[in-house]
Amino acid sequence: MSAEAAANRTAMLEFMVDDVDAEFAKINGNANVVHEPKLMPWGNRTELFRNADGTLVAIYTPVSDAAKALRRALNAVRLCPLAIPLSPLMPQKPRPSNALV
């Protein structure tokens, strides 16, 4: 059995960003957009796309008070994700993070 792009639909990468709409403007046209930024019931503004290998990638920004409070609580116990660039198409310097490495 050989590897096939987009054949594994069971995994998704998720990244918190400062402004999901600004990131969508950078990504749009360079990725297969599954859905444009929209507000989710749990209070995150989220966009979903597939990268060149077919992997689902979500980017989100907590926007409701409840979602922001949850993010602050997770940061307090050091469970926030490591900040890394979203795509090799858009090189960025990694931002400092208090995440466990």
Question: What can you tell me about this protein's structure?
Answer:
There is one protein chain. This protein is an alpha+beta fold. The protein has one domain (1-101): Signal recognition particle alu RNA binding heterodimer, srp9/1. The chain contains two helices and four strands. It has a four-stranded mixed sheet.
Write the layout of secondary structure elements.
Layout: E1 12-16, H1 20-27, E2 32-39, E3 44-50, E4 56-62, H2 65-76
Gist of the model:
About 20% of the residues lie in helices and about 25% in strands. It has two helices and four strands; from the N terminus they run E-H-E-E-E-H. The model is unreliable at about 90-95 (pLDDT under 50).
What characteristics describe this protein?
101 residues, alpha+beta, Signal recognition particle alu RNA binding heterodimer, srp9/1, four-stranded mixed beta sheet, 2 helices, 4 strands, globular
